[in-house]
């Protein structure tokens, strides 16, 4: 099958023929129909997070089940599914309590060393990053990485549900538990940031301030529920938020960019007792300098790390899909363009330049 292969850190993706094994045990073979280009995969391709090369990346994905292993119980060929990188064991304390995003044994969904690799090239193993490897015509994954979705959801849009949507909307709904009438600021209006805004709007936030350096993204943010916008390339984001909130600051700030500068801004724009949620993927070794007494204790503020929107994706993804079908959840405006697999490098150039929200590879 064709796949976009990363052969070394910092290199461009190369379209190559690789081999995918047959499903064994609780594995599922999926014909990929939509695979979105998330900024996290770009970060992984440019920074060494410890993944052996060569590798296939891609984790925002939807497709159709092609075949199942003998131990698969809940899926069958023809089912529409969305993939999610939070594979889980289903047996640890966290999983039993429903917190699968905190699974103590996420590696349980990987194939054992006693079996051949799921992906290979001329007999050499190809790393399956995030347990999915969705930048390919097919993917072979454990059934715990998949969830069935409504037949009426287009698979290009459905692909976004697997990471960007649940991370952003989940941060607002599940992690922050925004209450009716709360005030919110979101720094970074890409796919995750817009989903955070949409999640805050669903919760009934009274004021949602969108912050970005691109006017086009700020205009788009209003379609997702932003009540105010700040052009950070022109205005100081912290001062602007304070002005918009009568000098108080917001109760919830979300950093979705992944830089220490915007992380510090997220903390500084909080009102007394507020919480700054760190969502953006920082480079390895990044440090955030905080004065614990002045920044946290005196003002009773907190910093909270967010992973995958604290989402039980088996429950939440079908719900978001249903809201989309009902016309109550916006996925369409997150898709900037559909592309072919061979266009992946140009599409990532577009993402880096801020010209798109999400490009989706359509097969």
TrEMBL record:
Needed co-factor(s): Zn(2+)
Keyword annotations from UniProtKB, A to Z: Metal-binding, NAD, Oxidoreductase, Zinc
Sections of the chain in a coiled coil: none
GO terms of biological process kind: formaldehyde catabolic process
CDD domains (UniProt xref): Zn_ADH_class_III (cd08279)
SMART domains recorded: PKS_ER
Alphabetized Gene3D superfamilies for the sequence: Medium-chain alcohol dehydrogenases, catalytic domain, NAD(P)-binding Rossmann-like Domain
PROSITE patterns (alphabetical): ADH_ZINC
Protein name: Alcohol dehydrogenase
